[in-house]
Design a protein that fits this description.
Strand order of the largest sheet: 11-10-12-9-13
Radius of gyration: 21 Å
Mean pLDDT: 93
Distance between the termini: 58 Å
Helix content: 25-40%
Largest sheet: 5 strands, mixed
Shape: globular
Structural class: alpha/beta
Bound molecules: arginine
Low-confidence stretches: 15-22
Length: 262
């Protein structure tokens, strides 16, 4: 009897070894079998992902993902959530890939797998016109708004600012425009997009300070166990970078493109 149980257990172990059962990663095979790639995104981050009036999501990363899915021969399925749910969802195996202007950090690399980065961004300071804050040094002892779970949040906390965190980027912006905080810290290209939209409404104006505070590569995040899919996607990203497709997508959204360092 004992022998039989041991035999069954070792068969299960061998099968798991080859099929990866129990691991939360998404394999190329599993994506092809499902016929779709399910991505997790927080669509409040133009020009990378934003929500249209009809509920659809558009942006640079959505365009890139559509091409990736076309090349893989699968459908793109978009799941919307707050930014701070994206990485935990990937880690838990709820979605195949996190696509949310995600900056690669050492801390995050302990929990998820990243593709190769496809661009470089930085944290920017946004203030109201006429603010006494004109550079990073002026932020000392000041209050700032950020989006929850972002690199802006950890950067500001590490720097000892008084941080107010908001699930939605628009609420972090509103904290500044309604005078609840002295500054808003957010990724540069999204700052440019959201400030442009705000200033176009007329009335008081927002200003982005000319000081890039960090250098952050953006990549897509997958669960550990997704190594072969990451490899496949890296190959696609490499060709899209080499043939100028990524740059052209940035241009379509009027966004300056900075290539990640090799
Ligand atoms: N790049 C920053 C980070 O990784 C902010 C990303 C916010 N993304 C979003 N879709 N709201 O933390």
């Amino acid at each position: 009897m004992k022998k039989k149980i041991a035999l069954i257990l070792s068969i299960i172990m061998i099968v798991c070894l080859f099929t990866g059962c129990g691991s939360k990663g998404t394999t190329l095979k599993s994506v092809e079998k499902a016929g779709k790639l399910v991505i997790a995104t927080s669509p409040d981050f133009p020009p990378f992902e934003s929500l249209n009036a009809d509920g659809s999501v558009e942006g640079i990363e959505i365009d890139v993902l559509q091409i990736i899915c076309d090349k893989l021969g699968v459908e793109l399925q978009i799941e919307q959530m707050d930014f701070d749910s994206v990485l935990p969802g990937i880690q838990a195996g709820k979605f195949d890939m996190g696509v949310s202007g995600i900056s690669v950090t050492e801390k995050r690399q302990k929990n998820v797998l990243f593709t190769e980065p496809y661009c470089l961004a930085a944290q920017a300071i946004v203030v109201t016109e006429g603010s006494p804050i004109t550079c990073k040094a002026d932020l000392d002892g000041k209050s700032v708004s950020v989006q929850t779970g972002t690199t802006a949040e950890s950067f500001c906390m590490d720097n000892g600012y008084t941080v107010s965190s908001f699930s939605a980027n628009s609420d972090a912006e509103a904290a500044l425009t309604t005078g609840k905080v002295d500054a808003w810290v957010i990724d540069d290209l999204t700052a440019a997009d959201m400030v442009k939209a705000y200033n176009a409404q007329g009335g008081d104006k927002l200003v982005i300070l000319d000081e890039a505070m960090t250098s952050e590569p953006y990549a897509f995040a997958l669960a550990f166990g997704s190594e072969d899919l990451v490899k496949e996607i890296n190959g696609i990203l490499e060709s899209l970078t080499a043939d100028g497709t990524i740059k052209a997508i940035f241009e379509k959204y009027d966004a300056p493109y900075t290539a990640p360092e090799a």
